[in-house]
Amino acid sequence: MALRVGLVGWRGMVGSVLMQRMSAERDFDTIETTFFSTSSAGKAAPEIEGCKTYDPILQDGNDVAKLKGMDVIITCQGGDYTKTIYKPLREAGWKGHWIDASKILRMNDDAIIILDPINMPVIKNALAKGIKDWIGGNCTVSCMLMGVGALYKAGLVEWMQTSTYQAASGGGAPNMRELLTQYGALYAEVKDLLNDPASAILEIDRKVTAKQNAFTSEEAANFRGIPLGGNLIPWIDADREDGTSLEEWKGGAETNKIMGIANKILGSNEAPIPIDSTCIRVGAMRCHSQSLTFKLKKNVPLADIEQMIANDNEWVKFVPNNRIDSEKQLTPAVVSGTMNIPVGRVRKLAMGPQYLGAFTVGDQLLWGAAEPLRRMLRVLQA
Ligand code: HSE
């Protein structure tokens, strides 16, 4: 029998990407869909390409009785929705599968962070134990593991450090709009000078810098008043007041959790792998990039490491470590909107043969958000 699947938050940025991917992969052919809304219940359900078996009326996303009729709920509605509805729904006796893009339940002992090309054994183990909460990971972590998960699967990582270059999309749709508006404002500021070949570059630079620093709080509202156009911001998410940001903490906590390390419910007593991050917002649109440094537990020949990375999953693309391939294949602009996860700049570092460098790029909205959710539905159907 087809699973009854409730979709909440299908209209937002991640939800819209999810709808596109579910259409493209014909996921709707195999389910009975109910669209929920927290603001427009009672109106007509959306017409989504390929979605033929669905409740024609938008149902109320806060109606626990209606939600209880679902075998699976997938929500991209955000953390506040999860905080409001998850507990009453479970308390009402709902035993279905909850698939969630938000972080609220992510670190619960009985929730699994889903990234099936990397942690299918963890997911299968959890399914066998009756776990029902499946949570999408932090985008940076998911994109990193899609690229270099092979090294973790092989138990080769002694520690890892990542410096991230995170796109505006990680902050949300308004952040992407703000970035482009700022680029436009900066261009407008010096357009006449740029059109004059005799103008002085230092004058152009001075005007751009002055404009960046003069953006009003409205013009830079989405990045806490800091300009992102032509700039970078070396802090993402809350200050943990121990010298790290919440985004940086997630790197270690979530990577270990995804790999099933130190998860007592799943029977792992392994010590967590030390992972440290410096997370930086840059003026890219929707791809997160990362520069990775590993210490490996042993000296593995570079060619073997390259093979392991290249063969790990069908989306990872190994990029030879030379100038032309790196420039052409390892940029946000070329990866954006694709499922590809290029990994390049792979090399042994000057510190010794156990030290490895790499660089990877991933679409924050695809592997970083929507894709693991729809794939979990497929896992539940298998
Ligand atoms: N926290 C991420 C970012 C997005 O700000 O880029 C969500 O995973």
How helical, in percent, are the residues?
25-40%
Radius of gyration: 22 Å
Q: What distance lies between the first and last C-alpha atoms, to the nearest angstrom?
A: 13 Å
Query: Looking at the structure, what is the overall shape?
Result: globular
The main pleated sheet reads as: 7 strands, parallel
Strand content: 15-25%
Total strands: the figure is 15
Query: What small molecules are bound in this structure?
Result: L-homoserine
User: Helices and strands: which structural class?
Assistant: alpha/beta
Number of helices: 12
Strand order within the widest sheet? 3-2-1-4-5-7-6
Q: Which residues form runs of ≥5 with pLDDT under 50?
A: none
The string of secondary-structure elements, in order, is EHEEHEHEEHEHEHHEHEEEHEHHEEH
Mean pLDDT figure = 97
Describe what you observe in this structure.
With 382 residues, the protein is an alpha/beta fold. The chain has helices spanning 13-24, 64-67, 79-91, 116-128, 139-153, 173-195, 201-214, 246-258, 302-310, 323-329, 332-335, 366-381, and strands at 3-8, 31-37, 59-60, 72-75, 97-100, 111-114, 133-136, 157-165, 232-233, 275-278, 281-282, 287-296, 316-318, 341-349, 352-363. Strands 3-2-1-4-5-7-6 form a seven-stranded parallel sheet. A six-stranded mixed sheet has the order 10-8-12-15-14-13. The longest helix is centred in the middle third of the chain and has 23 residues, at 173-195.
